[in-house]
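This is your field. Please look over both lines of this record.
***
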Amino acid sequence: MFDARLIRNQFPILNTQDRKGQPLVYLDNAATTQKPWQVMEALADFYEHHNANIHRGIYQLADDATQAYESVRAQVAQFINATPEEVIFCGGTTEAINMVAHGWGYDTLSPGDEVLVTAMEHHANFVPWQVICDRTGATFKVLPLEPDGSLSLTSLEQALTKKTKLLAITQISNTTGIINPLAEITKMAHQNDTLVLVDAAQSIANDQIDVQSMNCDFLAFSGHKLYGPMGVGVLYGKSTHLEKMSPFQQGGSMIYQVSNNKTTFKKAPHKFEAGTPPVAAALGLGAAIRFINTLGMANIKAHAQELRTHAWGKLSDMNDVALYGVALESGAIISLNIKDIHPHDVATVLGEAGLAVRAGHHCTQPLMQHYGIVGTVRISFSVYNTLSEIDHFISALSKVKSLLS
């Protein structure tokens, strides 16, 4: 039975108290999730018993490390319904998107082509395409949003033209939690011969990802947002695209043969993993996936929705509180502002009450411009959050209003 109170026991950091002796209420999970003991044990076990570089050594320690690393690749592939050859380990979502922007974009885009993004994108799925378009002469197009911040599929359909080579889009907004219907969107894009890159940073820990049913061409996510270590992430790409795509970095491990005249590269995924990969972090990612599978993604999603529905209802009843996004069909994220109070001030006072929340533009400045605001206070939920923590947040927010209004 899913019980957030019992799950909390697997996260040592949640026993932390602040300088005042107040327990930690961690509501910044969209930025990074906390780590269960299984993940930390995986990291320690590698460095204590298996530390060796992979793919090159023929002694047992190196062979064991290689097999463990490649077993996680197979595990990730199963987790998102891909093949191991389509799973590339990298530093995180940002690096994964840059790998496609530089490896695919430089070789493919030219003047007259278009790259389409939405105004809700994280800067990591916005700026690389803006830069690549500037350097290749392609046109960078930003799709406007509806007043509530949602995406109009009619507007998207109208924005897609024969010139549109790529649609870069998030599955869940990291600011509002709005969910985009990716299966429908990719179908629409492919009818136009447009490739689709999905930023799954916010969805990977809260919804079951199936790249086959989604039918995306590329998908990126970070390990640290699904209870894994920082410094590791995944780029998924259809094998037909990866075969043609140039490696973002060159160096050791990814080459087949080097001579004075020419260098040839290995096939995917290894041609995209130059140098020493994040072996320990990858093993931690594997432990995180096993942790998620034990809880069950359906249970995780239901719990997050319960927390969000409870919080949204309480916040909707508060005077002078503005909510951004939509009430239903949204991820485990809520952004808000209190009238006439800067979000940084709100977050500061909440922090003094032991509440870890995020304030600012959340790397979505175009979305802030859409709403006509400088930033928001953002709360985001995970498996270890409870309804009582939400109630504590609501109570503290009321005190913020009375203190700062």
